[in-house]
């Protein structure tokens, strides 16, 4: 895995890649966002811009969903989002 997840800090995580790229991961409350019923809701930000969202359904068989929201002109892509999602344990 290229991404290393740094510990919990000021409401989120910091993921760093070998080449120095940094992604900040913020936990957001599920109330007030129209996302009730979700166990975990994380926003991924790179250089101040929203690049992705990770959610987990709150059901007897939880499913994690990762959405890529950034444009194509970034040093990051969907594979990076999947690697970061794998590093975060949303189901506990």
Explain what you see.
With 92 residues, this protein is mostly beta strands. It has one domain (3-87). It contains one helix and six strands. A hairpin with a 4-residue loop joins β2 and β3.
Concise synopsis of the structure shown:
By secondary structure, the chain is mostly beta strands. It has one helix and six strands. 11% of the residues lie in helices and 46% in strands.
Class by alpha and beta content: mainly beta
Beta content comes to: over 45%
Helix % is: 10-25%
Number of helices: 1
Summarize model confidence as the mean pLDDT.
79
State the separation between the terminal residues, measured CA to CA. Answer: 21 Å
Total strand count, please?
A: 6
Radius of gyration: 13 Å
Question: Which regions are unreliable across 5 or more consecutive residues at pLDDT < 50?
Answer: none
Domain count: 1
Please render the helix and strand layout as text.
Blueprint: E1 3-9, E2 12-17, E3 22-27, E4 38-46, E5 49-57, E6 64-68, H1 78-87
Antiparallel strand pairs: 1-2, 2-3, 3-4, 4-5, 5-6
For this entry, give a set of tags.
11% helix; mainly beta; globular; 92 residues; 6-stranded antiparallel beta sheet
């Amino acid at each position: 895995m290229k991404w290393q997840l740094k510990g919990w800090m000021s409401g989120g995580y910091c993921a760093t890649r070998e080449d120095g790229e940094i992604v900040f991961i913020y936990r957001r409350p599920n109330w007030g966002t129209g996302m009730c019923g979700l166990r975990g809701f994380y926003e991924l930000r790179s250089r101040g811009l929203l690049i992705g969202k990770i959610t987990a359904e709150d059901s007897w068989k939880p499913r994690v969903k990762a959405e890529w929201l950034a444009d194509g002109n970034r040093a990051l892509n969907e594979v990076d989002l999947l690697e970061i999602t794998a590093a975060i344990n949303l189901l506990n």
